[in-house]
Amino acid sequence: MYFNTFPKLLYSFDNKEFHLLTDILRRVAIDPKYRDAYLYYDEYTVQEGDTPEILADKYYGDPLLHWVIFLINDIVDPRYEWPLEQNSLVEYCKDKYGENNIYLVHHYENTDGHWVNSNYSPTPQAVTNFQHEDAENEKKRKIKLLKPAFINEFVTEFEGLVNR
Asked: Concatenated DSSP letters for 40-60?
């Protein structure tokens, strides 16, 4: 549904035959009111097993409106910007740090949570690679959901902007 509203363009790969393609490079800046004004959205904490499609279906009655969740939250790449499930997070850490290194020290923190050197006084808290990635993943759980009362207005405005 998201790309259905994008304009089409003629493109030739060989300068002989032209093909009608969707202009996927079209970018639209949404009205900041939808992102910044509490009136337009609810805060939501993404739960284990939630996907953008599941949330769009529950919240808007249409899983194809998952793109609205991405736009409201400035999510460009859901693979890296949507919270991972616990099993996926473990696999991500193994890929990033190596299977035997996920519980090695990533950094040290003082009692205020600021990064410090290992010789900081008083004794700093060691944070493992996994703990670090888990904390980063948890930050992604707080999202905004456009209130259902505004979904039609938002989609209509988006379609008008993308086709300018």
From this structure: GEEEEEPPTT--HHHHHHHHH
